[in-house]
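pasting for ref
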Amino acid sequence: MYQFKLIKKADISTIIPLLKILAPKMEEALLNERLEEMTNNHNYECVGVYDGETLIGMSGLWLLNKYYVGKHIEPDNVVIIPAYRGKGIGQQLLNWINEYGKQNGCKASELNCYLNNSEGLKFWLNNGYKVLGVHCQKKFE
């Protein structure tokens, strides 16, 4: 019913409306600037979920290698538009991501989930993820 496919670099800006769901106050120009930098210089990929030709969900993807876990995939900014939530699409998307990671030699999946995202945390825990630490940030003003 739904299609899952990598979004071409040339089409990456199609995810902006979904990113605005996650960060409604962030300027579109800044999102575009960061996406361009990520896709062109930092090995960022993005999988889209489509209902026909309509993009209804997405996840950023990072294929990384860190000493403590080895090669792994990191889903990033996972979002399904509200009208499509509760239909199992997130689970299908996660299955796609995990298979993509395995096909690319990944041994694990890791991600960040914000403390105020209780629904997201419940989803990840229900899918076998474990809380290993706390994501910390310091901004340079």
